[in-house]
Every structure is written in C-alpha cells, then in structure tokens.
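the two lines:
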Amino acid sequence: EAGVAQSPRYKIIEKRQSVAFWCNPISGHATLYWYQQILGQGPKLLIQFQNNGVVDDSQLPKDRFSAERLKGVDSTLKIQPAKLEDSAVYLCASSLGTSGRGYNEQFFGPGTRLTVL
Amino acid sequence: AQTVTQSQPEMSVQEAETVTLSCTYDTSESDYYLFWYKQPPSRQMILVIRQEAYKQQNATENRFSVNFQKAAKSFSLKISDSQLGDAAMYFCAYRSAISNFGNEKLTFGTGTRLTIIP
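prediction for all of em together
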C-alpha cells in the first residue's frame, strides 16, 4: 500500500514570495491533515479536511495561508506572501475518518522543509 | 484545550540498555488516546505505541512499553534493549476518543531527542 506522498521535499524562498505544497493521501482516506512543525517544536495542526470540506482551520493564518482539497483526494497548501517565521516542516497526514467512538490511525508523509530567507 | 508536556529535551542511553521518556498531559476529557511517535532524520512520523485511556492495562509493542497513570496524567515510554535504530526524536501526543469530524487532531509535545551510545 502506497503511503502519503508529499512534494517538494525541500523548498527555499525569499520572504514575500509565494510557495505551494502538494499532498496525495493514502487511497480511500477521507480525512486529510496539514501540520506545521517549527524547529524544536511538535507538529501543530493547521487545517483538517473531511473529503473536500474543511472541518477545522482554527489555527490557519488565513491572511497568508490557504488550502484546498478539490475532489476530496489530493490537497495543496499555499503561503502568500511568506514570512521568515513560516520556516518549518509541513507535514501532511491522512486517515480513514469515521464519526463516533473509534480509532483511525493517522499516517504521515515525509514532509516538506521550507526555508524562508 | 489539551496540552502535552515533555520535560526532557534530550536523553541518551547505552546500546542494549533501557531508557524511559517522560510525558505529562492536561485534559478535562475522560475518554482519549495517547500516543508515542518516533521521528527519525527522514522527518516521517512513525507511530510507536498507542494507549486508550479507558484501558487500565499498559500497552506494549515488542521492546516498547508505556506506564500510563491516568490520575496523575502521566504517560511514559520505556524502550528496552535499546538499538542504534531507535535514535530519533520522540513525541508524545494526545487525541480525543470521540470523533466529530473536527476533533481528531493530534496535540503533540515538544519532543525528546534520544541518542543511542554504541
């Protein structure tokens, strides 16, 4: 079974430029997550999709970050314009996604390391 | 809001020895999951072990086991017979047990860097 795919693996940009990250979840996974991991910290959820709908974007800086999941499969996360503090690893994860009491493991991709100069 | 605290930024252990990583958490919920994730230099988060809060029995996965103290809100990871491949960042994480399509997010601690000494 193929895992969560992300690209690019690395990206270096100058501040005020824009950047986009791509994620392809595991086939059949309804729930997709984007996490931001700043150096020395644990990952923090930016946005969660259920199919192609947003269920939690409370920690997404909406003035500069946007994300979409068209057709409920792959997803893109965009930053425009980038700031120095956006330097981080951006992790994508997916899970089967069900309601009620139950556990569906989140599977993580390899992440994209963004450096903003 | 839930919080997860890892007070050991770095730990080291001799190969083949045992090491324990600490984690405490704060929540008002009674039904939740706790996890330990491993993140090697490749950056991919790998699930090591999972504990369900309503289960009193501590979870075990081969050389990895946990000490879950619900009343104390403590969740430590013990690695027995440490191997060179165990070297990585280890993150403790929390998740609500009830899924409402919006609260399945993982809340992570700041991590512990584990070094294995040959």
